[in-house]
């Protein structure tokens, strides 16, 4: 059954990134959709879901022209802003990016919140931590800084695919260990779920797949509640997991 996007966002907002990852793993994902190394910097009790509204920054030396429109003034309601840099500016280890200037600040959160966005994710540095916290607006980032992006970076794409270095090389199957990847793509419109555990992306390219995942999540959560109850009564975890999850 194809569900409206707003309904999917509302359903996902009831669950944690861990719940979504469990579902994605059940359907064959090795990473569970997890985007590593992000830290929730503000509104740390928040649980957020929304559709990805993507923004690509690049160094000023990049040959692509700067986008003239203001991305923050076009951010859609119920979206999650996702900001990244090109792969050439990403690193597999901390601090994960080569740009030390913050790509995002308090005024951007003020505008995003007014526009009805549900949160912002910055695959780089942010600044103005107190402002985000005062707004009660959730922001994830790799790190923090003090300087605005203007002197070194420009926006070169809005609502474009973002390639993200995960720092992990995973074989795609057991027989072909040479076919490896440490890059994931976040597409505009993908579903984003986040809390203090981190951030998970559910690809929106197949409405049938999204429906399967959304239908599985509450069943798995309910099964694991029974497992927790069993464990508290002294039952073995492996036995209980096998029993309850087989009923999904």
TrEMBL record:
<dbReference type="Pfam" id="PF03737">
    <property type="entry name" value="RraA-like"/>
</dbReference>
<dbReference type="InterPro" id="IPR036704">
    <property type="entry name" value="RraA/RraA-like_sf"/>
</dbReference>
<dbReference type="InterPro" id="IPR005493">
    <property type="entry name" value="RraA/RraA-like"/>
</dbReference>
<protein>
    <submittedName>
        <fullName>4-hydroxy-4-methyl-2-oxoglutarate aldolase</fullName>
    </submittedName>
</protein>
